[in-house]
Amino acid sequence: MIGRIIGALVGREIDRRDGRGGVKGAALGALAVGGLRRMGPLGMLLGGGYVAKKAYDRRRAGRV
C-alpha cells in the first residue's frame, strides 16, 4: 500500500514538469511503482526520497 502511494506521488512530481497534467503522470507513476518494487526496500527509499526532496524544494521556494 505504501508503494502505491509513493508511486502516485512520484508520478505526480514527474507530471508537474510539463504542467499539462493528465494521463501521462498516472502512467509514469504506475511504471515507477513497478520499478521501485523490483528494487525492493532500496527502491522505496529512493522513491520516497525523491518525493520528499521535491516537496522540500517547493516549500523552500515558497518562503523566499
Characterization of the model:
- This protein has 64 residues and is mainly alpha-helical.
- The protein has one domain (2-63).
- It contains 3 helices and no strands.
- The radius of gyration is 12 Å and the shape is flat.
Q: What sort of overall outline do the alpha carbons produce when their principal axes are compared?
A: flat
In DSSP terms, counting alpha (H) and pi (I) runs of 4 or more, how many helices?
A: 3
Rg, Å, rounded:
12 Å
Task: List SSEs in N-to-C order.
Answer: HHH
Task: Report on the biggest sheet.
Answer: none
Report the average pLDDT across residues: 79
Structural class: mainly alpha
Range of helix content: over 70%
Q: For the record, give the distance between the C-alpha atoms at the N and C termini, rounded to a whole number.
A: 35 Å
Low-confidence stretches: none
Task: State which percent range the strand residues make up.
Answer: under 5%
List the helices and strands and how they pair.
Blueprint: H1 2-15, H2 23-38, H3 41-63
Helix pairs in contact: 1-2, 1-3, 2-3
